[in-house]
Amino acid sequence: MILLDTLFIGGLRFVLGRIAAAVDAELDDDGRLREELLAAQMRLELGEIGEAEYAELERTLLARIDEIRTRRAGGPARPGALRVTGVEATFLGEEAGGPRAPARPRRRRR
User: Fold this and answer.
1) How many other β-carbons are positioned within 10 Å of the β-carbon of residue 70?
2) Which of 70, 64, 44, 66 lies closest to 55, judged by CA?
3) DSSP per residue, 24-66
């Protein structure tokens, strides 16, 4: 039973670690934002959006790209920005001084 619990917890930690790595990679990718900026320029040229709407999109996207580049360079992130740095999980019975799973009754030998 303990072996199964250990395998389950190890597997869960592995999956959560992979998710955290994927989120970090997505947060640090400015390529998608540059593609959005290019798409906005095309929509402006085709007349689908106006100058004011394009200016707002451009300002927002360029600010986000600058934020990503600053974060990559080791500069401060904007206040309130979130970054996944790791995953920690505690399960019933692992906590120091916390409640433990009930022990199975032992059978007496005669």
Assistant:
1) 13
2) 44
3) HHHHT--HHHHHHHHHHHHHHHTTSS-HHHHHHHHHHHHHHHH
Whether the model pTM is above 0.70: no
Q: Which amino acid is at 90?
A: T
Q: What is the pLDDT of residues 22-40, one digit of tens each?
A: 887 777 778 888 888 999 9
Based on the structure, what is the number of domains in the chain?
1
Q: The domain containing residue 62 runs over which residues?
A: 30-71
Residue 53 has pLDDT above 90, yes or no: yes
In a domain, 52, yes or no: yes
Residue 43 included in any domain: yes
Residue 14 domain-assigned (yes or no): no
6: left (phi over 0), alpha (psi -120 to 50) or beta: alpha
pLDDT digits (tens, 9 = 90+) for 90-100: 666 555 555 55
Whether residue 40 lies inside any domain: the answer is yes
At position 37, the amino acid (one-letter code) is L
